[in-house]
Design goal:
The protein is of the alpha+beta class. It is built from 5 helices and 4 strands.
Length: about 190
């Protein structure tokens, strides 16, 4: 049956069919055998290049790690100030001391501080501080900026500002603030 078919078929058609079959077999071999190996070779070569760059700049890697650790420490200080490592019992006295020191350095009269406990907000516990101050406007703004620098993330929850004495030409303000320090609950 095959012999009869081969005798009837033109030699050019038969040659074209054989060529098509050979091309298909070669294409399948390339697609399934050689192409995945080529892709794997490219991945290994790229990994080798990355490792070569890292090993050539090994001293730079230690410097980069130190820079990143410094940046993380700076962000932690910006978020929590120096009180990130303090036990909860010492945080209150620490904040009061910093408020007093900043007040002395900025010509702000710290009249009173009343600490309290606020609510728990998700995984943070609020520490409330009712603060009463007397200061000029610019001294008060400087005081707020220094408090932010010294204590990190402190929020002014409520405030009331009124003139202390209406007779004075240099306006002294009587300021009442409710400040909140957030501490992560373990």
């Amino acid at each position: 049956m095959i012999d009869a078919y081969l005798e009837k078929t033109d030699t050019r058609t038969l040659a074209a069919g054989v060529i098509v079959i050979v091309v298909l077999v070669c294409a399948v071999q390339v697609l399934y055998l050689l192409w995945p190996q080529w892709q794997r070779y490219r991945q290994v070569d790229e990994s080798r290049e990355i490792l070569a760059r890292i090993s050539a700049g090994g001293a730079g890697l230690a410097t980069q790690l130190q820079a990143i650790e410094g940046e993380v420490a700076g962000l932690a200080k910006r978020l929590h100030g120096d009180m990130a490592e303090l036990p909860a019992k010492q945080m209150e006295s620490y904040i009061i001391g910093r408020l007093q020191r900043v007040s002395w350095n900025t010509d702000v009269d710290l009249i009173s501080i009343k600490p309290g406990v606020g609510q728990q907000v998700q995984m943070f516990q609020e520490g409330l501080f009712d603060v009463e101050l007397r200061a000029g406007y610019h001294d008060f703004v400087t005081w707020l900026q220094r408090i932010n620098d010294e204590l990190g993330f402190i929020v002014v929850k409520k405030y009331h500002i009124a003139p202390f004495d209406r007779q004075l030409t240099d306006a002294v303000l009587n300021i009442r603030l409710t400040m909140v320090a957030y501490r992560m609950v373990n």
